[in-house]
Amino acid sequence: MDEVRSGSSYISNSERRVHFGLGAVNKIDWIEIRWPSTLAEMFENPKVDTILKFTEDSGKPVPAK
Where in the chain are the domains? Predict the structure, then answer.
């Protein structure tokens, strides 16, 4: 789990990409993203060894817990 934060300092921003090392794993079943709007989405079978870009409201909704 990781969190993206922006606008953390005066006239600057932090990196908006999040990096996850997978070790010997070569397949991801799903990624769950919880957006600031409170929407939670699941993106199934994302590619590994690449940079992925996710857009809010384009995945499969996750039921509220």
Answer: 1-65
